[in-house]
Design a protein that fits this description.
This protein is α/β, with parallel strands linked by helices. Helix content is 28%, strand content 19%. It has a 4-stranded parallel β-sheet with strand order 1-4-2-3. It has a 3-stranded parallel β-sheet with strand order 5-6-7. Helix 1 packs parallel to helix 2.
């Protein structure tokens, strides 16, 4: 659903860029290259600089403002920009996307936009992040949004306790959020 994807991408990147659950890297299947200009168009209104790999750069050239479109290098992937900047990489499969995420992610919040339940389930099971979304913006990762009260901080570590520990302290959480286009 391109309208849903467009709204989610724009919200995840532009709602508040200086937070750890803002979109920093967009991974796109080659079959969706023709949709990339449509997906990214609202980002130009917020003056988002895009660092695109070779295929994404070619797909966006001529449709995304040239002063906001740059060629990506490996350093752009894994960067937490905290700014109106993001990287785009073309990946051949959900598995390739999850491998990229495993190498470059902060393990905070990841989202897949898909109507394919098998791809969604593969993504959920393979991504090792604190919050994993299907068809919703990563901007929901917040203690208050999760009903935990005021957020005191955020951790992407799996072992959080210090001092004497019991079974409860050895547990960790992975939130899975199933949406239908929700944005914050």
């Amino acid at each position: 659903d391109l309208e849903k994807a467009r709204a989610i991408v724009n919200n995840a990147k532009t709602r508040r860029v200086s937070v750890c659950n803002a979109l920093d890297a967009l991974l796109v299947h080659p079959n969706r290259l023709g949709d990339l200009a449509f997906l990214c168009a609202p980002l130009s209104e917020s003056h988002v600089t895009i660092y695109a790999d070779e295929k994404a750069f070619a797909a966006l050239s001529g449709s995304y403002p040239s002063e906001l479109l740059q060629k990506a290098d490996e350093s752009h992937f894994g960067t937490e920009f905290l700014d109106y900047k993001m990287a785009i990489k073309i990946v051949d499969s959900v598995e390739a996307a999850t491998e990229h995420i495993a190498l470059h992610s902060t393990h905070h919040s990841e989202s897949i936009i898909t109507e394919n339940k098998d791809n969604a389930n593969t993504f959920i099971s393979l991504v090792d992040s604190a919050a994993v979304y299907v068809n919703a913006s990563t901007r929901f990762t917040d203690g208050g949004e999760f009903g935990l009260g005021s957020e005191m901080g955020i951790s992407t570590q799996k072992l959080h306790a210090r001092g004497p520990m019991g079974l409860r302290e050895l547990n960790t959480y992975k939130y899975v959020i199933l949406g239908d286009g929700q944005i914050r």
